[in-house]
Every structure is written in C-alpha cells, then in structure tokens.
Write a structure and sequence with these properties.
With 203 residues, the chain is an alpha/beta fold. It has a single domain, classed as Alpha-Beta Barrel (Aconitase, domain 4). It is built from 8 helices and 7 strands. It has a 7-stranded mixed β-sheet. The longest helix is centred in the middle third of the chain and has 13 residues. It starts with 8 loop residues before the first strand and ends in an 8-residue tail after the last helix.
Length: 203
C-alpha cells in the first residue's frame, strides 16, 4: 500500500492562456528561481507578462478578476517548452492549477507536471480553441476533466482528449509521486538493496 492518492479527475473553473510556444521562462522568470523552497512561487507565475518594469498590471488572464480561483488551465501548442525547470509547474500548481488542457506540451514539462499529480491533456486545435472561447464567455462555469476516461465536459458537452498512456496509468493507479512511493516502500527497498552483492549491508 502507498499513501499516493490517485488522480482520476479534476473539476473547476477555467483560465485560458492563448499563444503557442509559451516557454518556462515566461511561466516563471529565472530570477524567481533562487528560492530555497517552492512556497510562494504562485504569485510570480507569468510575472513579466502580468506586470511592467514599474510593477503596474498589464492585460493578462492571471490578473483578471473573473479567473481568480480557476484551476483548469487551457493552453495552445508546445506549452512549457524551453528549459527543464521544475519551478514552472510548481508555480502553476501553487497559483491553483490542478489540470492543464492544451494542444501539445514539451515532454519534460509534462513529466514535471506528472511528478506533481497535474494531468496534461491534449486535444486538437479546434477543440482547444472552442474550450478557450467557452471559458472566456462563461468564466464562472466549471469544466470536468476525467483522466481515466480521457474526456472533458463543459457547458453540457463532452469532448475526447488524450492523456499519455504512462501518465494516465501513473495518475489513476496512484504511482505518480515517486518520492512518496519510495518512502512508503522503504523496507522493501532496503531489503532489495541489502540483497545486492555490490551493496554493503547495514546488518
């Protein structure tokens, strides 16, 4: 048994971020990566897109009142490209994001999301655009993401999305948090290590 919860679904209001090739430096600028822990990173998500040099707010969904409290991010293609910094999904999670729907994701970014239990679901351009349009028109309405069934339901409509097979299995079976898995199976790990001929036993 493990203490890792399964992630089979997510529900909440949405927030659309339009544009292709949004990289990790846009998601969390490098100067905010000097923190000792990830706590507090959420307030710096998309910081340079949200504020000018004098810290005045710019037009950005993360600043808009109707999207505060949103938990489902809806993006376009190649989201999370650029450097492999894990701070990017950490910042999004700490802002409040539980799931991300997009046209495509950078592989390392999707892997870093998985390590936090955040599903990254893909759909074609038209489907994603329709969801973004719906979210903009009805920001108070919720979307329901079903990881296991690979569907998103919104406005009385259900559409098919894709979740990478390995990601879906890890989320649904509660095997996404490798650190927690190792801790919960510490005895078995120690027994295996001690049985290896090239490992010194603590006995």
């Amino acid at each position: 048994m493990t203490d890792v919860p399964s992630v089979t679904d997510a529900s909440g209001t949405g927030i659309p971020i339009r544009g292709n090739d949004i990289d990790t430096d846009q998601i969390i600028p490098a100067r905010f990566m000097k923190v000792v822990t990830f706590e507090g990173l959420g307030e710096f998500a998309f910081f340079d897109k949200r504020f000018d040099e004098d810290d005045n707010e710019k037009d950005h969904p993360f600043n808009e009142a109707q999207y505060q409290g949103a938990s489902i991010l809806v993006v376009n293609s190649n989201f999370g490209c650029g450097s492999s910094r894990e701070h990017a999904p950490q910042a999004l999670m700490r802002w409040g994001i539980d799931a991300i729907i997009g046209e495509s994701f950078a592989e390392i970014f999707a892997g870093n999301c998985l390590a936090l239990g955040i599903p990254t679901l893909t759909a074609d351009h038209d489907t994603v655009s329709e969801i973004q349009d719906w979210v903009e028109a009805t920001p108070d309405e919720e979307l329901d993401v079903d990881v296991a069934a690979e569907t998103v339901t919104y406005g009385g409509k259900t559409v098919s999305v894709t979740v990478d097979d390995a990601q879906r299995r890890a989320l649904v079976e509660g095997e996404w948090d490798t650190t927690a898995l190792l801790k919960s199976n510490a005895k078995a790990v120690a027994e295996t290590a001690n049985a290896l001929p090239y490992m010194e036993s603590d006995d």
